[in-house]
Amino acid sequence: MKIFFNKKKNRFESKEKIPSSSFIFSKEDGVWYSTDLKEIEKYSEFLSPSDRRILLELLGKEEKDLDNNVGFRSGISENQNESKEKDTQEEILDPPLSEDVFEKIFDELFEDIDEDIDEDIAEATYLEVEYGTEKEEAEEESEYDFKSNLEEGKINSKYSLEERLKNLDMFFNSLSNKNKYGIEKFIRYVDSLSKEDIIDEKVYKKIKEEIEELIKNPDNSKSERALRKILMLPTRPLNLSKEKLHQITKNLDTNLFGYENLKDQIIGKLVYSLNNSHHGPYNILLIGEPGTGKSTIAKIIADSLDLKLNTINVANLSELDLPGSNRTWNNATEGLIARGLINNNDIKTAVFLLDEVDKAISRSNIINQISALIDPNVGFIDMFLGLEIDISHCIFILTANDKNLLPDYILDRCVTFEVKPLKDEDYKILLTKIAKNIISERLKVPISEVDSLAKRIVEDLSENKISVRKFQIVLNSLIDGFYGYGFKNNIKVERNLNDFYVYFLGNKNEILDQN
Predict the structure, then answer these.
(1) For every one of its 515 residues, what pLDDT tens digit does the chain have, with 9 covering 90 and above?
(2) Is the distance from CB of 13 to CB of 3 less than 8 angstroms?
(3) How far is CA 20 from each of CA 41, 112, 145, 162, 176, rounded to the nearest angstrom?
(4) Greatest CA span in the chain, whole angstroms?
(5) Which candidate, 6, 50, 3, places its Cα nearest to that of 23?
(6) Following DSSP, what letter does each residue of 198-217 receive, concatenated?
(7) Residues 6+ apart with CB under 8 A from 421
(8) Residue 109 to residues 96, 122, 310, 335, 505: CA-CA distances in angstroms?
(9) Is the distance from CB of 184 to CB of 19 less than 8 angstroms?
(10) CATH code, 242-418
(11) How many CA atoms does the CB half-sphere of 56 hold within 13 Å?
């Protein structure tokens, strides 16, 4: 027979099916986790009198039958009992746990752990321990009550990135303390992620593999890091309500001059994704001479979606940058694609700029990786995570100076747009918007207060017919210089637009020549 203390019902119960017949003590919450009556009997001296009576009844014994247990022999006075308990308490509360015992604890861990487990047992297979005048109770939460969570509208927060990482940290803590109950609790949480379609089957299986590896080898830091990264992969689609689409359209119209067909294609792709859960990545190829604003267009697209732009300079890529490195390498890490998704605030739609693709055309390995990345029929595997990651919601924006250098299999997978130099009027409008954003961010001024200064700066710099990219470099360099000038002369820099413009006029030509 096996026994556990049902905290919810505040009583001992006997059950035939219990997850494990192991025995372990958790210092953290002062609780004995046990399912074996013989083990419980050994430590019956630490039970309260009422709980001890229940235990004796379940055992079919009388108190005299427990006379081998120190502290509960017939005839021992209460004072003697308290004294003896103090003498032995430290030793009893921290029993040694050999590696063999620990291995035995997890023998059944991955053998259909979800099947035939009573819900009450899954929530609390433990004995509450009472010693001295202090009483520590095991935390009892019904974390897997899906119906109540749905009714209260809490189901999303329960599986948020923050909650996933919080549960993971508790798992790592349980692992280091060899707390079987805490580990099983995390596995049930992972199971719930799968059942509620928060994670797909591939991710679910990989997480279970990493858990199993960490149980066998708790010091495997790479497996620990990979598990954390996998749980950080995004689970939420981009919020694409009609109101959100209208806002995205407005942002594109306001910030992206011309390119009406490009804007229509982007909105059309987003609308399509609303009604189609299975679709490949959206690939845009921008062709144009250096400085025509290709990278700026990519930034505008990402900003309009309220997403970060992940810029990847293709010309400088190594063969391991995109797919990550195998864990056998000393400095193994995830690839740039996985990293961009991990850092995307739990949103599946990530925007990647693959800049200057044509400069890597002679490097077949890199071009083949990019080809696989933008192919909707080919899965993209991250070598460090050991997992095919979902990139079906991503937007890949490729740029190139010369379309003729690119192979057909790249061109065929992209919607291609030619980026031509803007008309003077549109050019100045674009530079003004760029200047307002840079000045507002770097000088800590509300964007509504920098319009006049931005227009004056654009008029002064546009006379030189510089590219959009060079304009950004020059303006940022001037602000860098202004910070240094302010420090040397004890001048306040932030929110100081007048002094900045004076500095700008005195140094713009030198900065233009340097760049």
Answers:
(1) 445 555 444 455 554 444 443 334 333 444 444 545 555 555 555 555 666 666 666 666 766 665 443 333 223 334 444 444 444 433 333 344 445 545 554 554 444 444 433 443 333 333 333 223 333 333 333 333 433 333 333 345 889 999 999 999 999 999 998 898 899 999 999 999 999 999 999 999 999 999 999 999 999 999 999 999 999 999 998 877 888 888 888 888 877 777 788 888 888 877 776 666 556 788 999 999 988 889 988 998 998 889 999 999 999 999 999 999 999 898 899 999 999 999 999 999 999 999 999 999 999 999 999 999 999 888 899 999 999 999 999 999 999 999 999 999 999 999 999 988 778 888 888 899 889 999 999 999 999 999 999 999 999 987 777 888 889 999 999 999 999 999 998 888 888 999 999 999 999 999 988 87
(2) yes
(3) 17, 12, 23, 30, 19
(4) 104
(5) 3
(6) SS-HHHHHHHHHHHHHHHH-
(7) 289, 292, 427
(8) 21, 13, 40, 32, 71
(9) yes
(10) 3.40.50.300
(11) 17
Cβ burial 353-368 (10 Å sphere, 16+ → b, else e): bbbbbbbbbeeeebbe
The tokens of 385 are what? 């995570």
Amino acid at site 466? I
Backbone angles phi, psi at 470, to 5 degrees: -65, -35
Q: In whole angstroms, give the CA distance from residue 372 to residue 378.
A: 6
Beta bridge partners of 381: 388
Q: What residues have CB less than 8 Å from 154, skipping those under 6 apart?
A: none
Indicate the residue type of 122.
A
Using an 8 Å Cβ cutoff, are 116 and 15 in contact?
no
Q: Tell me, what DSSP letter sits at residue 403? A: G
Q: Which residue has the tokens 């700026």?
A: 296
Query: Can you spell out the DSSP letters for 54-69?
Result: HHHHHHT--GGGGTTS
Segments making up each domain of the chain, as ranges: 2-135, 146-232, 242-418, 424-514
> Among residues 305, 327, 326, which one has the least CA distance to residue 251?
305
Structure tokens at 490: 């004890």
If you search the block for the tokens 């229509």, which residue do you land on? Answer: 264
User: Which structure tokens are listed for 387?
Assistant: 């997992």
DSSP letters, 258-271, are: S-HHHHHHHHHHHH
Could you tell me the sign of the dihedral formed by the alpha carbons of 27, 29, 32, 35, in that order?
negative
Sign of CA dihedral 186, 190, 195, 196: positive
Coil vs helix vs strand at 177: coil
